[in-house]
Amino acid sequence: MAIEARADVNAKDSFGQTALMLAAKQGDHEAVKALLDAGADAAQTDSLGRSAGDLVKVSQPRPVEEENNPLKNWREKMSGEAVPEDPAKKSMELKAMIEGREKPKKYGLILMKALAQKDARTAEAALEADADPNLLDDKGDSALVLLAKGKWKDQEGLKVRLAQKAVKAGADIDFQNVQGNTALHFAANRGESLELVESLLRLRANPSLANGEGNTALMYAAHGGHEEVCTALMEACAAVMLTNRFGLSAEAMAKGKGFKSCAALIHAYELAPKKVGEYGGTEPKRKEKKKEQHLDFDYSKWDKLEQEMRNDEEVEQSVRQRESLDAMKRPKPKLEDLGPQAFGLPPDTPWPPADPALRKKGPFDYGHWDQIVEDIERQDKVLERYEHLQQNPKYEWRDGQKMQVIF
């Protein structure tokens, strides 16, 4: 009745114990099963760090001689009553039932922590120990999404192997986080993750899924100018003509960022799109020996497009050269001619300024920009040191206590 009234099955008392822990301590099979079916968390611990499985009082099994004794439970056998169940067997079944629900989450938490710390060995061991690969972290990311988001320097092979094991363990390959991004979105956004992109596509990831802003994996790859990733996605039948909620397509994004060859590649697939097969696309092309194929695509359009691009680049180059020459010929502006508005000052400011330091700065003051760059570099160094200390922990003695160095 309490569960039907939507009581919190994971509520704790003053000792940090839940109803599941108390039922396990009492050896109440029916209450334990009802709580687990209602979503009770078997991985919760009390104030002493004990889980529900730790609180089960497991009875010692009886000796074999006593179990095989023909006179055992002779009264019940003579009267035809039910023989009482062995308490040791009953308690072990109760413990196994609780640990069966506790184990996936327990090792799932270990998996998430290992992926956050880029510990491939522990993550692989957690998956082999039946960790729940669809468990979410505090940001709403699954193990597969967290794996694709992480920057694993020179360890793309490990990422691919972990992704394959996670999917084999039941991970949802098309899981979308709070923003609607999948593992394929993050892998496509990072151009160096081509091997992971191809692996996810072979595992039947949907290349046409859009996130909350309507962006697809192809749009992210085009925005970064990653031509090989774009090719892999379009060979897997990614939707080329889709637009996001701002009305931009993958081709428009590539053009907007100045990646003309990438935009031309996408345009070529628009003219001769891949035939859509089964949901999730086809397997990406692997590097094989070139074979003669019957091509039904008119490459004269492609040649014409390439010629137009070359002409545009030559025109732009000549314009840039002419502008740079004109800029060199123009005299340097004087401080008196610029006025206070050029420095972000009110129009009624006395001009020219009497401060000689301001005169030396010239028309542009880069001091504020230099400070921003220094702050960014300092933050990068702090993050690199933090990641290094997480992978190679160091300890110091402070006030008589051994403490881990964080920064």
Automatic annotation (TrEMBL):
Query: Protein name, please?
Result: Uncharacterized protein
UniProt keyword terms in alphabetical order? ANK repeat, Repeat
Q: Does the UniProt entry include the keyword NADP?
A: no
InterPro entries assigned = Ankyrin_rpt (IPR002110), Ankyrin_rpt-contain_sf (IPR036770), Dendritic_Spine_Reg/Scaffold (IPR050889)
Query: What lineage does UniProt assign to this protein's organism?
Result: Eukaryota, Sar, Alveolata, Dinophyceae, Suessiales
Disordered: annotated span: 308-339
Show me the ANK repeat boundaries. 15-47, 179-212, 213-245
Q: Which organism is it from?
A: Polarella glacialis (Dinoflagellate)
Q: Which PANTHER family match?
A: PROTEIN VAPYRIN, ROLLING PEBBLES, ISOFORM B
